[in-house]
Amino acid sequence: xxxxxxxxxxxxxxxxxxxxxxxxxxxxxxxxxxxxxxxxxxxxxxxxxxxxxxxxxxxxxxxxxxxxxxxxxxxxxxxxxxxxxxxxxxxxxxxxxxxxxxxxxxxxxxxxxxxxxxxxxxxxxxxxxxxxxxxxxxxxxxxxxxxxxxxxxxxxxxxxxxxxxxxxxxxxxxxxxxxxxxxxxxxxxxxxxxxxxxxxxxxxxxxxxxxxxxxxxxxxxxxxxxxxxxxxxxxxxxxxxxxxxxxxxxxxxxxxxxxxxxxxxxxxxxxxxxxxxxxxxxxxxx
Length: 286
Description:
Blueprint: E1 6-8, E2 13-16, E3 27-29, E4 31-33, E5 41-45, E6 51-53, E7 57-59, E8 66-75, E9 81-91, E10 95-99, H1 100-103, E11 105-107, E12 112-115, E13 123-127, E14 145-152, E15 158-166, E16 175-180, E17 183-185, E18 201-204, E19 217-219, E20 232-235, E21 239-247, E22 252-260
Parallel strand pairs: 2-9
Antiparallel strand pairs: 1-4, 3-7, 5-6, 5-8, 8-9, 10-22, 11-14, 12-13, 13-22, 14-21, 15-19, 15-20, 15-22, 16-18, 16-21, 17-20
């Protein structure tokens, strides 16, 4: 008499959305058992019945945040089979913190990485003061810029914050342009602030004319009044994205970039002046 096999799909799991792009990826692994010691064949299927693997270990497809069920079936080749289901929850990526000096990749000579004990990860990206005039719009084809990689969640709305420092605390050394691959304006859904265009967010360390600046400070693009909140962003397709940082005024340093869907949605992560806040990074390129 043939006895049917059984299979254990492993415990239910919760996986952060951004972890789906880790080098090792995300996978499920089942262990089958056959009372008759027959060799087993495996088959993994998603909730729609689509089969995505014929092995006991299977790489998971990339999914938006949500709850998904995967069923593994084992057969012994003699008519016996067994199935079990595993629940995988993809958790939203609501908070993104980047250490610009540690992950920034420069094109052209304008931006350099400088060791700085007051900066996140001990380093900052710096555009030395060369006395250049202010650039009134980002360039569609810049010769000088740096990029920072991250993974964006398509299901949330992000608020941008940046920590800057100006040479000599001067208002002529306190701003930059930022662009984002895949970005859309959150209220309208229209493509916005993308590389390859002259659309960008101007980030000024000084909150308003005459507000002054001192040391490191957190700011957004809401210039013109103290604590004025700036733009919110969405990334409709999600997944790996890049931030492009271009010169607006030289003599400025940047060490942290935050995209927050909850914690800092309406409140800056630290002080506008003389800030000492170092947030732990949430994403580092593999």
